[in-house]
Design brief:
Blueprint: H1 21-29, H2 40-45, H3 48-63, H4 71-87, H5 107-125, E1 136-137, H6 145-150, E2 157-158
Helix pairs in contact: 4-5
Length: 168
């Protein structure tokens, strides 16, 4: 069975995962989409075809899962910015950031937003350079900090350009 994606309002231009260089660059480059909600009386006045198109647009907007800047995201962005400033001239003993908490509280989302903000600042500082300044590190959800120290770096690293060294 062949399904016409346009017929069902599915965007044909799917995003690559942010663990690929193409997907990461697209995530960084795209601004969040906006959607203007019609007042109810204007919505009711739409003809059936226009109303259906409008409703499909609303579904597509909600399927984008627009990120809301929560206190967690604000804190991670603030602390991450401070750490990048403090670490800018360090050669060794760089300070790190550990984000922990219960599942589904926005830790990965906050880290992706930190990476995006950092890359946009780096692009602003070094225009015209084709740099890849962000590495996204993901830890297994059931791991404790003690167990994480025992795992090789290669089991965590997922980056658009990074391959873990064989020695790790």
């Amino acid at each position: 069975m062949v399904v016409n994606t346009r017929e069902f309002g599915q965007p044909e231009d799917r995003r690559m995962p942010t663990t690929t260089l193409e997907g990461w660059r697209r995530f960084v480059d795209e601004d969040p989409i906006a959607f203007d909600l019609l007042p109810e009386d204007e919505w009711k006045d739409l003809d059936p075809r226009s109303r259906n198109e409008y409703d499909e647009s609303r579904v597509n907007y909600h399927s984008e899962l627009v990120i809301v800047e929560t206190p967690t995201i604000r804190d991670v962005l603030h602390q991450g910015r401070l750490l990048t400033l403090v670490n800018r001239r360090e050669i060794s003993a760089r300070r790190g950031l550990i984000v922990s908490g219960p599942w589904a509280t926005g830790k990965s989302t906050a880290m992706k937003q930190l990476g995006r903000a950092h890359e946009l600042r780096v692009r602003q500082r070094f225009p015209g350079h084709d740099r890849i300044p962000v590495v996204y590190v993901s830890a297994p959800p059931n791991g404790s900090p003690r167990n994480q120290r025992r795992r090789p770096v290669g089991s965590f690293c997922r980056s658009p350009c990074l391959r873990a060294p064989a020695a790790c």
